[in-house]
Amino acid sequence: MSEEIKAQIRHYALTVLGVDDLGFGAVDDYQSPLSPKIDTFFPKAKTLIVMAFKELANCESDNAYLAMGGRLDAMEFIRPCNYKLARYLEKEFAMKAMSTPPSYPLKMSPENRYGLIAEFSQRHAAFAAGLGTWGRNNLILHPKFGARVLFCTIISDVPLPPDKPCQENICNNCNICVEQCPGHALDGEGKTNEILCLKHSQPFGIAGNMRFWKKFAQSDIEEQKKMVASPEFMSLYQASFIGFQYFCFNCTKFCPIGTK
User: Pairing mode, if any, of strands 133-134 and 97-99?
Assistant: First the structure.
């Protein structure tokens, strides 16, 4: 019966919602060293249902604004899929289903390193659900899509048989992602230096915002007038209502896995 339920869920996600791949994992197999334990926010959680979404070709563009536009399109597609799959589980199978954020909101406190530690790790969930293995870029590489994939997870209180772990050795250790990282954030194997990454990937994120306003506070009135008319301020303003803006996709775009 459990396999029949899995088949129905998989059909709904892949055929009705248009998700690219789907995996089932056990909550006990979710091992994220920094994020909160699942039982702290969902005590009866048993199953992870992880959706995979292929990135558009935008991520390969040298135009950072078109690349980011593709990411925003993907995020706008993921969120309704997240909600619709959770609703489907509740209505069709009387499950308790909890969606998890594909990105923000994030806890911006010092103990969460100002948003660097998510409440839920989609990468670790994807690994637990057998949707891929870790690459040298510290992303989950999907057998078909490589690094060009995003994940989002629904957590359920009904135990379903987990899918088999991905046994394929997907990463070929070519080190292209390491060489192409402008911030040298991947130099230490098995760890991404987020601070070095953010300087290039999110120049108008919180760190850039803080630098701007500190300088603003220390400037005279004429300099302040120039600052609020500058392209930097306009970019910070835009980021304030769009959300996190990524201007570097090198660890994704240069990965040869999954490309034709």
Answer: unpaired
Q: What is the pTM of this model?
A: 0.91
Mean pLDDT of the chain: 93
Q: What per-residue confidence (pLDDT) applies to 246? A: 84
Q: CA 152, CA 21: separation in Å to the nearest integer?
A: 11
d(CA 257, CA 137): 12
pLDDT digits (tens, 9 = 90+) for 160-177: 999 999 988 899 999 999
Per-residue pLDDT at 215 exceeds 90 = yes
pLDDT digits (tens, 9 = 90+) for 57-70: 999 999 989 999 99
pLDDT of 1 over the 80 cut: no
Query: How many other CB atoms are found less than 10 A from the CB of residue 221?
Result: 6
CA–CA separation, 186 and 260 (whole Å) = 25
3-state secondary structure of 124: helix
Distance of alpha carbon 122 from alpha carbon 100, whole angstroms: 8
What is the rounded distance in angstroms from the CA atom of residue 39 to the CA atom of residue 49?
Answer: 16
Closest CA to 149 of 247, 50, 12: 50
Selection from 153, 30, 14 nearest residue 83 by Cα: 153
Distance of alpha carbon 80 from alpha carbon 14, whole angstroms: 14
Count of CB atoms within 10 A of residue 198's CB?
22
Q: Which two tokens stand for residue 117?
A: 């530690």
